[in-house]
Design a protein that fits this description.
InterPro entries: Gfo/Idh/MocA-like_OxRdtase_N, Gfo/Idh/MocA_oxidoreduct, GFO_IDH_MocA-like_dom, NAD(P)-bd_dom_sf. This is Gfo/Idh/MocA family oxidoreductase. The protein is an alpha/beta fold and about 375 residues long. The longest helix has 19 residues.
Length: about 375
């Protein structure tokens, strides 16, 4: 694996590296870790790769690695949103598979362009919607699909954070509130797409209509930092999506609740090893990571016995393990791909426009399988 971005001071780069290498199916061997050559070299040293494989640019990396017998087979894109399309295009045109951080691109038009490139290239492509890698999220999806809740009636997903409630400080905050780097969406693009993907992934249903209310709450901020959406799913079920980065005291409070005619379920990212299942007769079942009753998808995503917590890094690693299987020619049905990436960009575009125009309920188009 080669990496784009993820150099000194980056948050997500080291996480990509740890997740990719956890199962020893993928190893980071090269990178263009920064557009600044000295910083890229420093990034390579931090990752303990060979000094000559820390490149000043993605183009230099692709050219040099093409001439090596042990050259890279895939690229992980861990740079800000406005770099994603160019980096993915260069890698795909060089015949290199791509794992792209979310959101897919900076704009919906870019996402459509990338979708065409991926289709034409026929190479493995994944998007890091990390929360779909948790064992109990995959268990929840399987139980919904098996009819444990009956017909789905309501989906509530919330993702509150508080780290941008005040002045944005530091590299990680700066680019996320800058439309030149983040694109047209702020909070909706940074964490709202995670909530959206989780809701569709577990419920097994597509959103077809939405009503959006986005705001830049902090004075002087251009991009949204607080979002409320009402959703309508393809079967008529109602939904609510809340995403906020100005909710003081909140850390990473992603939570999903799905209610059907016979029961409901509740999963929280800050307590990811517990899934609550509620039955219409008043009974409650606590499903825990490592339980003997877990289905095949959850078991395949689990690494430790019950009582030994698995968390964010392991969930992230499950996506990379799925990706490695895809490279080997296996089916990776639960790995978010280009369709899921495009749907996330559709959400950002539709929510930003609908909120700005006070459009009320709008139709939300279909694209791909949502995988």
């Amino acid at each position: 694996m080669g990496m784009v971005g993820g150099g000194p001071g980056a948050l997500i780069g080291p996480i990509h590296r740890i997740a990719a290498e956890l199962d020893r199916e993928i190893v980071l061997v090269a990178g263009a870790f920064s557009s600044d050559a000295k910083r890229s070299i420093a990034g390579g040293a931090a990752y303990a790769i060979e000094p000559e494989r820390a490149y000043p640019s993605l183009a230099a990396m692709l050219t040099a690695e093409r001439g090596r017998e042990d050259g890279i087979e895939m690229v992980a894109i861990a740079s800000p949103n406005h770099h994603h399309l160019g980096a993915a295009r260069a890698a795909l045109e060089a015949g290199v598979a791509v794992m792209c951080d979310k959101p897919l691109t900076a704009t919906l038009d870019e996402a459509r362009d990338l979708e065409r490139l991926v289709r034409a290239a026929g190479l493995p492509f994944g998007v890091t919607y990390t929360y779909s890698g948790y064992p109990l999220v995959r268990e929840a999806r399987a139980r919904v699909a098996a009819g444990a809740l009956g017909a789905i009636r309501k989906v509530v997903v919330e993702y509150p954070q508080g780290w941008l409630a005040g002045k944005a400080e530091g590299k990680q905050a700066a680019w996320r509130i800058d439309p030149a780097m983040a694109g047209s969406g702020g909070c909706i693009a940074d964490i709202g797409v995670h909530a959206f993907h989780l809701a569709e992934f577990v419920a097994g249903l597509k959103v077809t209509r939405l009503l959006a209310d986005l705001a830049a709450v902090v004075p002087g901020r251009v991009l949204d930092d607080d979002c409320q959406l009402l959703l309508r799913f393809e079967n008529g079920a109602r939904g609510v999506l809340l995403a906020s980065q100005i909710s003081v005291g909140e850390r990473n409070g992603l939570r999903l609740r799905v209610y059907g005619e016979h029961g409901g379920l509740d999963w929280q990212q800050e307590q990811p090893n517990r899934l609550w299942l509620y039955r219409a007769d008043g009974g409650t079942e606590l499903i825990q990571a490592g339980d003997a009753s877990l289905g095949a998808d959850a078991v395949a995503a689990s690494r430790t016995p019950g009582g030994h917590p698995e968390g964010y890094l392991e969930a992230f690693a499950n996506l990379y393990r799925d990706f490695a299987g895809l490279v080997r020619g296996e089916k990776a049905l639960l790995l978010p791909g280009i369709e899921a990436g495009v749907r996330g960009m559709m959400l950002i575009d539709a929510a930003v426009r609908a909120s700005r125009d006070e459009a009320g309920w709008i139709d939300f188009g279909q694209s791909g399988s949502g995988s």
